[in-house]
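Before going further, it is useful to explain how the protein records used in this thesis are read. An example of such a record is reproduced below.

***
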Amino acid sequence: MIITTTGSVEHRPIEAYQGIVFGEVITGINVLKDIGAGFRNVFGGRSKSYEDELLVAREEALAELARRAEDLGADAIIGMKMDYEVLGSDNGMLMVTCSGTAVKLI
């Protein structure tokens, strides 16, 4: 599945627009990761555990997006956008969403 942020796929004309598709992932950040990130916040440095969690959530959202496009018979997703949000009363949940237009290519 071709996924692009552009409005077209180079050298591949669009035959049909199959619809807008979404991929969403909401994941909890556990207490141990929060403690480690808290130390990084005080002393500086990168939070590897948060970065890893974000990487996994991003990959899962893109995989879900591709699955939904394939269910519509699409060959590609154009105009893909991704967004991140922190949710929950204690900001303990990470939401990654992506959307785009599923298209059939010639």
